[in-house]
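Here is one such protein, fold included:

. . .
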Amino acid sequence: MIVIALGANLATERHGPPLLGLEAALRRLDEFGVAVMQRSNWYRSAPDPPSDQPMYINGVVQVESELSPAALMAVLLSIEIDFGRRRSEPNAARVMDLDLIDFDGQILNRAADDKGPALRLPHPRLSHRAFVLLPLLEIAPSWRHPESGRHIDDLITALPEGQKIDLLET
């Protein structure tokens, strides 16, 4: 199972509010041979760590692709850039954030090189993020963390206190 998490809390120049930008990003995946097979509902979540930034819109999708993990990560980064993402400082507000969460249970830790971007799989912070785990539960209720083997229900129960997240009514 290949899982991508999506998030945004700033409008894009071309597509407008975060939700419309995220929907447009999903459509762009198809141009790269990445087929969305399942998608979660959208959620509204507070910035993590807490800050005065706007609320985020988050969701996850299961995709199918013939791309390698590094090639898929390169596609995700190119879409972020195309939508106006500029990396300035950690945890800054953003128009687009596309994270490769899981790629068929592979465990990777590769540095960036001439063959592709840096990539860690599974995503190193997914176990601490309600805005990833709650949408993931919708589309993969039996999912297990590739490294720890922990069931998604256990990961959700162990989430740190205080993460604000609500189902977005669309």
